[in-house]
Request: fold
Amino acid sequence: MPAKGQKRRQQIVDTAKKMFIEQGFQSTHIGQVCEELNIARGTVYQYFGNKREILYAILESIEESIDDILDPDDLRDLLKDNPSQKDIIKFNTERITECVKAIIEEPIVIKLVFKDIVGIDEEVIERVDQFLKHLINIVSRDVEEIKKKGLYKKTLHADITAIILIGSIMLLVYQFDKEKKDVTDKEVINALVAHYFTGVLK
Reply:
């Protein structure tokens, strides 16, 4: 897509996203987005078939960001060198920090997960569930890889471990956002990581 088209697409996403949060999903209409941006409806339909597609584009964007952060090749390269527990903690602390930052950059995602946006329907909820399952799968994959190397407890259930970690991050971000606190504070991340590794390391 040409740079001009990418810029216009992002403007549509950003405007709709703000409206979804402020006035609710059902109460937001394509016409309002067009009015805010002073563009014709046809311009929006060049990029999106409906407002659900705009919402899904936001989820896809953060999925891609987290896929990049949790690149399996990076983990495999680390594991080839027989890392220590200290190396694993440092590596995963960096990954968790980057994931938290990626989620914070799209606050609508947390609001969707906690159904904190008025008017989201079953189809949207189903897409959010797919998003969460995707995150669980990639974190679970990492847990299995590290467990095979003997660095995590053999008794760990990878999916449950992934759900606990993701759930902790999501709730932490949600709660800190409500309280206007900085969830990226080093002490906060270190506390989260410390609790996580207490449960998983041998």
Summary: Residues 122-148 form the longest helix (27 residues). The mean pLDDT is 93. The CA atoms of residues 89 and 194 lie 9 Å apart.
